[in-house]
């Protein structure tokens, strides 16, 4: 982690969006100008757009609002760790489930190996998005994990609504969509059972102000900056509201199960009443989306009537457009 200290200090200085020369940065941090130039290259590899103007120095293409562990800790009841540079916040918690209290959170500025469902990559450039994971010990065990993952999506959209950010929808099982493009992804992973309880790690990556030039994403995506004015997105506040809302929703789910959540999920369904197709390996089924049921299955109106489908290997796609 130490190797990143200088890079993070450079970013903190540059985060205001002002110019600063290599010489000044070197003096501040007690390293040579050549070392600064090397660190700047490393920072660019994290997906940050920094440029240099002769005679003026370095500048970020847009100011950065960095996450602040003391602000997060002050407003959260659950233990939280900010680890700016990490492989994957999900993996970090999975490696520590035996030491963690249920509700513990890990949050990062950059993931070198961010992952999505089915081993796909989650593109995670530094500072522009949110990457966080929560450990949850689910007393009801594995059988309740499917419902839990739907509850997570509802909680995150409702957290945005609390902040006045409207128009974000859900795609079954738990992606967040804005104007038919992917805004955030949720990945729930399990690390064994303890007694009857399931040890789950719930990860969420949400795009906030990701650069249009970002490479490596294979489908249309959206950023929260389209929903809200960029200047009004406070990353620390957003993380706090999401974590607290998620914690409350998970506690409610443990007590009441899916009742109540089905209607809340259906209200937010991106495809409700629209033609969709479900892809299950080589099989494709088309029909009209009818929301979900109490088991968390997706409902599809086909020529055989309303049918329910459940399982981790199903992909849902809109057929319009
Ligand atoms: P499904 O599981 O229903 O097929 P999906 O197509 O969204 O849904 P996932 O495996 O859930 O697929 O998510 C991974 C997808 O997300 C990949 O297509 C990947 O390119 C894309 N992706 C990766 N990083 C980001 C990001 N930061 N923002 C939006 N999408 C991303
Ligand atoms: C998906 O849509 O496929 C799920 C994406 C989940 C991404 C988040 S970012 C924080 C956490 N750490 C990871 O490595 N993945 C999840």
TrEMBL record:
Catalytic activity reported: biotin + L-lysyl-[protein] + ATP = N(6)-biotinyl-L-lysyl-[protein] + AMP + diphosphate + H(+)
GO cellular component: cytoplasm
Keywords, ordered alphabetically: ATP-binding, Biotin, DNA-binding, Ligase, Nucleotide-binding, Repressor, Transcription, Transcription regulation
Entry coiled-coil feature ranges: none
CDD domains: BPL
GO BP annotation list: regulation of DNA-templated transcription
Matches recorded under Pfam families: BPL_C, BPL_LplA_LipB, HTH_11
InterPro entries membership: aa-tRNA-synth_II/BPL/LPL (IPR045864), Bifunct_BirA (IPR030855), Biotin_CoA_COase_ligase (IPR004408), BPL_C (IPR003142), BPL_LPL_catalytic (IPR004143), HTH_11 (IPR013196), Transcriptional_repressor_C (IPR008988), WH-like_DNA-bd_sf (IPR036388)
Binding, biotin: 88-90, 111, 115-117, 182
Residue ranges of every copy of the BPL/LPL catalytic domain listed in the record: 65-254
E.C. code: 6.3.4.15
Listed name of the protein: Bifunctional ligase/repressor BirA
């Amino acid at each position: 982690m130490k190797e990143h200290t200088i890079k993070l200090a450079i970013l903190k200085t540059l985060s205001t969006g002002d110019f600063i020369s290599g010489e000044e940065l070197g003096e501040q941090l007690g390293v040579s100008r050549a070392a600064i130039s090397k660190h700047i290259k490393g920072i660019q590899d994290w997906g940050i757009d920094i440029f240099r103007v002769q005679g003026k120095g370095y500048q970020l293409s847009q100011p950065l609002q960095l996450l602040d562990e003391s602000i997060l800790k002050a407003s959260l009841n659950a233990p939280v760790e900010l680890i700016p540079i990490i492989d994957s916040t999900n993996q970090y918690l999975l490696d520590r489930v035996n030491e963690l209290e249920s509700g513990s959170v890990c949050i990062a500025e950059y993931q070198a190996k961010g992952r999505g469902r089915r081993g796909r990559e989650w593109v995670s450039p530094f500072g522009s998005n949110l990457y966080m994971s929560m450990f949850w010990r689910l007393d009801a065990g594995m059988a309740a994990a499917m419902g839990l993952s739907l509850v997570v999506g509802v909680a995150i959209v409702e957290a945005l609504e609390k902040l006045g950010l409207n128009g974000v929808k859900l795609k079954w099982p738990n992606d967040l969509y804005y104007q038919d493009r992917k805004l955030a992804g949720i990945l729930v992973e399990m690390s064994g059972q303890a007694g009857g309880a399931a040890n789950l790690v719930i990860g969420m990556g949400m795009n906030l102000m990701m650069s249009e030039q970002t490479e490596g994403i294979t489908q249309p995506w959206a950023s929260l900056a389209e929903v809200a004015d960029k200047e009004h997105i406070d990353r620390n506040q957003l993380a706090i509201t999401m974590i607290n809302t998620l914690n409350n929703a998970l506690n409610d789910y443990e007590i009441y199960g899916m009742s109540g959540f089905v209607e809340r999920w259906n209200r937010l369904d991106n495809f409700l009443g629209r033609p969709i197709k479900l892809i299950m390996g080589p099989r494709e089924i088309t029909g009209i989306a009818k929301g979900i049921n109490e088991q968390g299955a997706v409902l599809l109106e086909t020529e055989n009537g309303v049918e329910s489908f459940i399982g981790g290997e199903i992909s849902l796609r809109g057929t319009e457009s």
